[in-house]
Amino acid sequence: MDAKDDSQPGPTVGEVGELEVLDRIVRRLPAGDPVIGPGDDCAVLAAPDGRYVVTTDMMVHGPDFRWAWSSPEDIGWKAAATNLSDVAAMGATPTGLVIALAAPQDTPVSVLERFADGVRLAVEALAPACGVVGGDLSTSSTFTVSVTAFGDLGGRAPVLRSGAEPGDVVAVSGELGRAARGLARLFRDGVDAAGEPSRAATVASGADADSDALRQRRPVPPIADGVAAAGAGATAMLDLSDGLAIDGGRLARASRVTLDLDPTVVEEGPALHGGEDHGLLATFPPGMPLPAGFRRIGSVRERGEHDVLRGGRPVPTSGWDPYADWDGAAG
Ligand SMILES: [Mg+2]
């Protein structure tokens, strides 16, 4: 276990055993309002719409997060928030989360309790009607968490990526580029002399307290804005997990259109190419007021040679890669 920011870690998962660990975690999680909740073989959720949306997203120590940079609370928050964001991007309201987690045997139980606290804080802040309705625990040499989220469409049509029409307005909700700036800060200042992520360097440099790095560790997706966009007639929508250029490219290809971004509103750099912001990108019919939270950033054109333009010039629809960027700076 290398969640190093816990100086009094207490007993480990292996010492305490699965049943007690589960008991200590479940009581910290948000309950929500399932028909049948945790403790039976399955949870039962209401689906008043007659359909439900479902999504899943996994986080693995190494490729997806580093203990040197993220606390257990951060990981719980982010695992919940990224899944809630995908539900919102369909125009649905999150109704339940199912969480599967595998931790090394020597993981302090307190780390899993703090993970659960992060899940609870995210749900309370972002989707208070949602709850954790079930899950599973296992062991693995690599800390791994998988969250599945369910959501209700409330009788509305789901908002797909494929519905944008030429003439539509392109709009976003949420801030652009902060998570990428935060991750760049961690890669620059939160590493040791050998270039490895380092808790000591992160704290000593102040990168730990950087507000953009906090956004990278704890994204704040505008969950309610997804339902508002659906209600306002959004023609297409997705959440910004890989950056405006890549995700805009996905929406453009699915809808068989070209997005033209306004260069006076969208700057080059992290706002265009940075990932993990988890705002919402949506298109709306022209000539109508945008729902609260959304601002215009461009317009939809007939499908051309490129997926995304900025002021008429092609935007590469590849993501900003912090590893490549940082390697370049170091080398
Ligand atoms: Mg998504």
Automatic annotation (TrEMBL):
Recorded source organism is Curtobacterium luteum
Biological processes, Gene Ontology terms:
thiamine biosynthetic process; thiamine diphosphate biosynthetic process
List of residues binding Mg(2+) 4: D41, T55, D86
Q: What is this protein called?
A: Thiamine-monophosphate kinase
Question: Could you tell me one molecular function GO term of this UniProt entry?
Answer: magnesium ion binding
What else is noted?
Reaction mechanism of ThiL seems to utilize a direct, inline transfer of the gamma-phosphate of ATP to TMP rather than a phosphorylated enzyme intermediate.
**UniProt function note:** Catalyzes the ATP-dependent phosphorylation of thiamine-monophosphate (TMP) to form thiamine-pyrophosphate (TPP), the active form of vitamin B1.
Q: Record's CDD domains?
A: ThiL
| Chain positions recorded as ATP binding sites | G135, D136, R161, S241
Q: Which residues bind Mg(2+) 5?
A: D242
HAMAP family annotated for this entry? Answer: TMP_kinase
Segments of this protein annotated with the region Disordered: 305-331
**What Pfam families would the database entry show?**
AIRS (PF00586)
- Binding-site residues for Mg(2+) 1, renumbered to this chain: T56, D57, D136
Can you tell me which family this protein belongs to?
A: Belongs to the thiamine-monophosphate kinase family.
List, for all copies, the residue spans of the domain called PurM-like N-terminal.
39-151
EC code: 2.7.4.16
Q: Which SUPFAM superfamilies does the entry link to?
A: PurM C-terminal domain-like, PurM N-terminal domain-like
Annotated residues that bind Mg(2+) 2 are located at D57, D86
Which pathway does the protein contribute to? Cofactor biosynthesis; thiamine diphosphate biosynthesis; thiamine diphosphate from thiamine phosphate: step 1/1
| Alphabetical list of NCBIfam families matching this protein | thiL (TIGR01379)
Broadest EC class assigned to this enzyme? transferase
